[in-house]
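ligand=2-acetamido-2-deoxy-beta-D-glucopyranose
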Amino acid sequence: MWHSALLLGAFLLSGQVRGSDGSASTAITCFTRGLDLRKGTEDVLCPANCPLWQFYVFGDGVYASLSSVCGAAIHSGVITNTGGAVRVQTLPGQENYPAVNANGIQSQVLSRWASSFSVTAGTQSTALEAVGRSVSTARPSTGKRPKKTLDKKAGNKDCKADIAFLIDGSYNIGQRRFNLQKNFVGKVAVMLGIGTEGPHVGVVQASEHPKIEFYLKNFTATKEVLFAIKELGFRGGNSNTGKALKYTAQKFFSLENGARKGIPKIIVVFLDGWPSDDLEEAGIVAREFGVNVFIVSVAKPTTEELGMVQDIGFVDKAVCRNNGFFSYQMPTWFGTTKYVKPLVQKLCSHEQMLCSKTCYNSVNIGFLIDGSSSIGESNFRLVLEFVSNVAKAFEISDIGSKVAAVQFTYDQRTEFGFTDFVTKDKVLSAIHGIHYMSGGTATGDAISFTTRNVFGPVKDGPNKNFLIVLTDGQSYDDVRGPAAAAQKAGITVFSVGVAWAPLDDLKDMASEPRESHTFFTREFTGLEQMVPDIIRGICKDFLDSKQ
Ligand SMILES: *[C@@H]1O[C@H](CO)[C@@H](O)[C@H](O)[C@H]1NC(C)=O
């Protein structure tokens, strides 16, 4: 029995399973998300006995594509937690995904997501489902299941997070509850599984002025962290949580202080009562730095105290998504043990860390480069230098930002598309290698060409799209219509004019507000100075689109 189960296990894990009716199903895991599957319709096979509390499901009936497929299937009643065949249908994104409790799963609210899916019963034969069941029940008896070996030094490798605990050290909390808070933070630290390859933590104390108690790099073993937490002294003072949050977002996560590249940055703000200052600006700064802010609030202000709260909506303003995921409430500091595990699960679900997205790692930037005769070879080199300097600022990778370039005269030539080069070095050398075309100027046609051929293939992706049009003169065709169509397709247009480029054309092409999306310089040498303004403009638009 055991060897056939193993064989079947290997068969299922290898991916394709063929049903008796000939349809192919892909065996997936409990954590496969909609966005991990192919577009269109796909038949999949969910395993049995998924850990229900670890499912992330957004929506009801129609689910955001970052939801677990098997979780959604159980939530919608298509299968039970004994596994089974599910047909997944890709759907367009929605403005809102509601939270509904059904079949043992609490789905969550999410606003605006790029794509969705729905689930219906799969077409697998019952024979195959029986096979799936026998495999999952037979497997433990083989004794071959890889045991989770707990390497203490490495820590929990499945939990990727760099976490700052921003603890409350104000008069609101007082010495006694401050100690209870330390207990709670200690319990969270223990359960996280801190280690060299697991989560790293540090502590900042908020009171009148913030104080970094220790950094991520100071301790990478649970025991040391617990000792450091025990040693924390209560500072007292006003509850300037906004000031402390801003300070932590700016100062805590530097590479020198132990932040790791590509690992989600998290600040867990503990708040007893309410903050004395404003959290809104601090929330914006945290977003700019790609930090995921969690607010753990304990003991909400009483009705009499409410009048003293500066801004009742402070929690929603501090977090990047007001979807309930990032805010967490505990009624008191007593009996908090049961709150430890759910909080740890949130902190460790790195695919939920939506706020890690910044303008540097989540944009597509297309450059539309005028190659007309009036520019001349040496000025054309200055234009390429400008393109290169803008591109340099972004984190280019297959999961990050992407860059494309099109050169135009009357004609258009895609120098490289968004998916051709996905490292910064390759993009920069591709820019360097662009040959000057020389010819007329048809900017309108070139915008249409770029919208269709360069942005078309990426328009449903997760990144925000930007087009930077560089030109030195009057276009022979209409620019207004093509630019409006590009904007309608979700592309933010910046126009950069040099020398004889007419300001009216530049403004007509640019996105609203036109003033801040239009740039002009008399000389080609002036392009260099515009680089920081363009980057700042892209980052501002990116943030505004997330509000
Ligand atoms: C953490 O590391 C920094 C730099 O190495 C050091 O200055 C500081 O004293 C350390 N803090 C603690 C609490 O060990």
